[in-house]
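Lecture notes, part 5. Sequence design as translation. It can be helpful to think of inverse folding as translation between two languages: the language of shapes and the language of residues. The source text, in structure tokens, appears below.
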């Protein structure tokens, strides 16, 4: 699987207010990445819309 886009932004004035939320987000994202990565061979052959629908089915 090729990474097509990456984005990173830093919230500078938030101090530690968002730490718990950021940790939950990162854990959820790592789960999603592992699901997509494990099923990429099947997903690669689909259109973008089909990939989204199929990925959602894998997750739910």
């Amino acid at each position: 699987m090729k990474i097509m886009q990456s984005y990173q932004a830093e919230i500078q004035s938030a101090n530690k207010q968002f730490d718990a939320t950021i940790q939950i987000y990162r854990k959820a994202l790592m789960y999603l990445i592992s699901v997509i990565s494990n099923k990429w061979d099947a997903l690669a052959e689909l259109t973008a819309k089909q990939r989204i629908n199929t990925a959602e089915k894998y997750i739910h």
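The translated text above is only one of many valid answers, since several sequences can fold into similar shapes. DSSP finds three helices and no strands in the chain.
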